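Researcher: We're teaching a course module on how sequence relates to structure. For the next exercise, students receive a sequence and then see the predicted structure as tokens, so they can try to spot secondary structure elements on their own. Here is the exercise chain.
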Amino acid sequence: METAINVTRLGLDPYLGWGAFYALCAVMALVWLTYLINRGQAPLSRLLAILLGLAALSNPSIVEEERDPLPSVAAVILDRSESMAFGTRQDAAEAAYQAVTAQLGADPSLELRVLESDPKADGTNLYTALQGMMADVSRDRVAGAIMITDGQLHDLPANPGEAGDLGPVHGLIVGNQDRGDRRVEIVEGPSFGIVGENAEFIIRADDPDGGEIPVDVSVNGGETRTVFLIAGRDTPLTLEIERRGENVIVLETPPGREELTLANNRTAASLSGVRDRLRVLLITGRPNAAGRVWRDLLKSDPQVDLVHFTILRPPLKTDVTPIEELALINFPTEELFEGKLGEFNLIIFDQYERRGVITQSYLANMARYVEDGGALIIIAGEPFASPASLARTPLAAVLPAVPNGEIDVEHFVPALTDAGRRHTVTSPLDGQSWGGWMRAVGARAEVGDVLMTGPDGGPLLVLDRVGDGRVGLLLSDQIWLWARGHEGGGPFSELIRRMVHWMMKEPELEERQLSLIASGDIATIRLRTLSDSAPDLTLETPEGEIIALNWTAQAPGLFEASTSIEQLGLYRAEAGGLEAVALNGPANPKEYADLQSSDRVLAPIAEATRGGVFRIDADGGSLPEIRRVGRNGSAAGGSWLGLRERGAYVVRASSSTPLLPGIAAAAALIIFLLVAWRREGR
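Model: And here is the predicted structure for the students to work with:
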């Protein structure tokens, strides 16, 4: 700190206040001009009198001050963001940082403030950091700022003129400006949509070589399709929303000729699927208590649109009842099973048998409906074991079990299998007390998962995936006993709801699922499976590195693994054909949006504050000369940058001596007025 200095200056402190004093000056000037225009005889005497009067009212004095000079404040900010990790950027920046801070720290007229940016932040926010550093500094002490960065800043003001009070702002740019990088991004997309409808995205790929870029698109780890994008051009992309809940859309492009990193060759977006209405077709072969249970439960759900038909008689049966006395309508088979079959999300057959109402061709249509992604539930009663069984139709191609022709009518209590204790549909029901049933259809399970068993361990509830669709088979019509509370009842509503939601492919009810959570510094992978062992697990980082991890068993069929992670971006886990992706940080990290070293971003701010942008060598050399410059003018040249010398100070002591005491001013004013009257009297 410099020693105190003594300064003598002229001080003015008008008695009337500055506003009134300025107004009085204007009035006196107008009066004198009027006097001059009217050819007054003593304009000079009148002018001297006015000036003397105004001078007296301004209360002039000689002020003597003891001042302590204040150092100017300079800021040096080092970019520690993730983009600085490529090539020699970090080493060059560190060398420049050490050299600059050493030089400025040795200047006693400067107060040096230094800061390193947060490496975990989403984006490089050096300007915000500068504002925070200078928040407690009066602007007449700001000498300027030096930012050591690769030039990719994400928080600069839209109007460069707003940075003027923090300047001059200089940039020392590290990195090879000629090194390119291929990248892909999702420019725009919805955050939610209706399941089964399309969502519109805007995507973009950039490559220094330009041309056409292949981009692989996948949804929820499913089958990929390739689209070709023109480099640098926003392109629309239409995707179908597959399921309720989170849908993860992944874009990936192969490495280009030039690559700074592969982390931005892959990006993702999360879209929440909302189911509008669940359309269910319930066909009851004959009136029965179980059918009423299904109907009442489905109708009680406001999200379900239920269409229910009960077939009371086949069309060829002779019946002499007059038509006007029948409360029946013709069964719209053609409309349902040809025209509108695909509009239903779920079809339920309750104790249906072939009676000539639904033809073999319609049942074949239904089998194709399931394979194409539809859902089918069959509640099997006695007709399923008869020659008129649905198992003897084209629908047999999608059924997971074949009836053996027997019907067990003994009392039994449904029991969960090992698979049932692990399956997401029935595992929550384990340990509950259930009432008994009285009838089950004997069958042999051929495919799918047997979740519940009946008499003698025979299959009772079987679920299976067929093509893109799903099938459920309940080999009993006795679930209504649980609804009536027989022997204490059972979880009929929960079982039905969970089974229906599984048929609708709800993500949380997938029995074989791999989930990945990447948050902060930890990635956690969980596997749900129906088997006792877990397949090998690998985790792919945003940079493309493959890490093999070991599972830890948490419960039967439930495994978990975790590992520490460092990078922002998209992680992908794979185990046994299952795949899961997760984003660590935002969907499109700003740090990876553009990794090319550039001086274009910082240049407008530097120009607005009269600073400069300079490139430095890979080893941190070729630094510009740092000079102290005056308060005004340019603060940068071809090979130098300047920090302003503000000359701020604080007054420690002060005294004042009036220049025009009242008596002397009044005497001088009287003299000038007498001279003026004398001249005017001649």
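Model: If you want an answer key for the exercise: The mean pLDDT is 84. The CA atoms of residues 21 and 131 lie 39 Å apart.
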